[in-house]
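Re: Re: token formats

Sure, here are both.
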Amino acid sequence: MSVMSLHCHVFIQKEVTETKTEDIEDPGAYSIEDAKQKAEYDKMMQLAEEKKMRVRSTISDLRDQFEKLIDKNNKLPEHLRLHRKVHCQNLSRFYKCF
């Protein structure tokens, strides 16, 4: 081994030993895998919350439309009105009629 290659070998070895990192000893610290799983879980929960909000908004819109139809129906002359029994017949499984 020449002096130059020996010097390079020592320099590289010194560089490798100086760049070692310390282990994280805190038991409460997240590992990289734990952090990745938590991020995935948080994203999944965020998407679920967004979907629930969209569904709730749709249900609210449908209820508003239904109530408007009831109001329109109530304004019609008696002989043209649909009775509440007809309104609620198919909806009774999903929506308690008033």
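Second one below.
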Amino acid sequence: MDLKKFESSATVCCHKDKPYVVGRNSTHNVAVYERTEQAKHRDGTPDIYNEFQLTLVKNIDGDIWALEKDLRRVIKATHQLDKVQSSVCELTGKITFLGFYRYCIRDFLVSHGF
């Protein structure tokens, strides 16, 4: 049986200058997502008039805090903001930003080879 060898379209990224790696999802896109969540009252009932706009960055390996610092700096510079609220989950390798910054983050990650 003669098996043909095919070249893989997957790219391996190794960044010697960055202490973190951001992987891609199953469709080979950068794992940056936007989500809208409904706010809740203190008693737990949904507040139908208020929503949160969130941006999620997934598939992070390495120094997640360094990535959060770099992304925060890029978002501040791009959108002329004084403060950027974020949440880091080291266990799952996710960073959540309050606001819609998908294109800004995606452009930064792609320009750095992720």
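The first strand starts at residue 20 and ends at 22. The chain has one domain: 20-111.
- S.
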